[in-house]
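Q: What does the predicted 3D structure of Quinone oxidoreductase 1 look like?
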Amino acid sequence: MTKAIRIEQTGGPEVMQWVDVEVGEPGPGEVRIRHEAVGLNYIDVYFRTGLYKQPLPGGLGMEGAGVVEAVGEGVTHLRTGDRVAYAGRPTGAYAQVRVMPADIVVRLPGSISFEQGAAMMLQGLTVQYLIRDSYRVQAGDTVLLHAAAGGVGLIACQWLKALGVTVIGTVGSDEKAELARAHGCTHTVVYTRESFVDRVKEITGGKGVPAVYDSIGADTFRGSLDCLAPRGTMVSFGNASGPVPPFDISVLGNKGSLRLTRPTLMTYVVHRELLEPMVADLFDSVGSGKVKIEVRQRYALADVAQAHRDLESRRTTGSTILLPY
């Protein structure tokens, strides 16, 4: 018998229950992992509240790191005792031990700790596809990044700076602005007292930016479009303030032949031919020191309700992990 978080209905943090579960042997194409650390991400809130649907009762959590305890038939890239990490569906990472599909699991280099692994996979791979695929940045670009002091934001600021990109980052306080700048953000905009649209126009001399990375959603979507230069790319990859309402796509043409994309990490991680080079790129960036993974908050997995409250109230910065033991 082992412990895990389960929900029987969607709702607030109180719906998460710390319960005993049976974990069996892995079937074909599966592995059993003993978690050493689990990642906390805003997408977990979407599943908990029902914004993103899943069968209930069910688990939560999409990112973890630990040790392979058992390997199912047909799994050739992993062995018992391997240090591993992963990000992706199915949900269920909020657990001491779990059985899961092996396809999204990768070996964790010895130079990267379990805590770093749990803190970097979902957020780091998200940054990788954002800057390499959704809009492939070039040295000399200036981009707008919302939530620059969050988990994705701090990784993105470092990585973009290493690539020679100027980052305009929105944050919620002076303290978060200082943190973002310390991680490579060139210009910070405290959205609680400044218009990020006006600041982007001021910084770019009225030209706008070629790309906006927006994980906030409803509150920032329209303003983000206004920050784009003609033929610019709007990358909407989150809904922290709620989903973007329906809109007339002719707006994209009226604002200068804009492009809009709504990527998700799940599209990438289910294909090994996409996942493996992305992971290699991420591990190289971390291993070289260009990107440092900093765990800024730690909670016991049993106390995940408080972690969700802090995350939703914007009291966290950077990466947060849950400790299962």
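A (community wiki): The structure tokens above were generated from the sequence. The first helix runs from residue 42 to 49. The radius of gyration is 20 Å.
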